[in-house]
């Protein structure tokens, strides 16, 4: 049985050790409820959510996400804050959803403020969280589902060596309209 099935590995102070980021601009820390306003500030931008299934009407709609992140169950979703090394401002989030300790699988999700787009931040954090998921959590498969129109995210996944596995028709509702998604995955030990 792998470590994902035994719960998330924790450091001596009781929190999972965090992925190390190979990027001069940002680092990661645990996401906290007090981050909600900074997170919502860019998620309220239609440009940011255009190619995602986010459907937020107010900051209060984020509350259920924070309730899920606060759970200590090994299968509950986890989310990290992407913060500027200089000043600590939150400029993104990244996490794992649909974590299955039994099957040692999870689905990666991420978003960045447009203020830091185009500088390789997403590529750095996705690579770091994938490596961490394999090495620290013992996952064997990390998948991503991406709306077919989300060219930026598709480029990130392909730069991070995710392989396209399939086409998911009518997979999710995108603010009232059905959306087709690509399924991507990386497998532990496969470069
Ligand atoms: C998806 C998203 C995270 C991608 O952000 P991004 O800025 O395009 O991706 P990166 O941070 O990896 O930056 C890559 C770009 O920076 C450039 N770049 C500059 N320095 C770089 C470096 N050191 N390393 C890698 N790329 C670098 C690359 O050439 C690339 O440009 P290109 O895409 O025009 O070729 C962002 O568009 C976003 O938050 N979108 C809204 C939410 C969303 O769609 N989430 C994903 C749902 S599946």
Automatic annotation (TrEMBL):
GO terms for molecular function: protein N-terminal-serine acetyltransferase activity; protein-N-terminal-alanine acetyltransferase activity. The keyword GTP-binding does not apply. Gene3D superfamilies: 3.40.630.30. GO terms for cellular component: cytoplasm. Keywords: Transferase. Residues 26-188 form the N-acetyltransferase domain. InterPro entries: Acyl_CoA_acyltransferase, GNAT_dom, Ribosomal_N-acetyltransferase. This is GNAT family N-acetyltransferase. It comes from Janthinobacterium svalbardensis. The lineage of its organism: Bacteria, Pseudomonadati, Pseudomonadota, Betaproteobacteria, Burkholderiales.
């Amino acid at each position: 049985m792998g470590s994902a099935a035994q719960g998330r590995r924790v450091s001596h102070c009781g929190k999972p050790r965090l992925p190390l980021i190979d990027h001069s601009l940002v680092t990661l820390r645990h996401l906290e409820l007090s981050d909600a306003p900074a997170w919502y500030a860019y998620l309220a931008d239609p440009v940011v959510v255009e190619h995602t299934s986010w459907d937020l009407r107010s900051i209060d709609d984020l509350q259920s996400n924070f309730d899920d992140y606060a759970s200590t169950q090994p299968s509950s979703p986890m989310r990290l804050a992407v913060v500027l090394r200089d000043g600590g401002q939150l400029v993104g989030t990244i996490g794992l959803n649909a974590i299955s300790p039994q099957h040692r699988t999870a689905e990666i999700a991420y978003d960045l403020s447009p203020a830091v787009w185009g500088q390789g931040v997403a590529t750095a954090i996705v690579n770091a969280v994938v490596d961490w998921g394999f090495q620290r959590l013992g996952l064997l498969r990390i998948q991503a589902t991406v709306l077919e129109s989300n060219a930026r995210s598709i480029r990130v996944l392909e730069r991070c060596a995710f392989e396209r596995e399939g086409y998911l028709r009518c997979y999710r509702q995108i603010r009232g309209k059905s959306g087709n998604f690509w399924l991507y995955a990386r497998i532990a030990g496969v470069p």
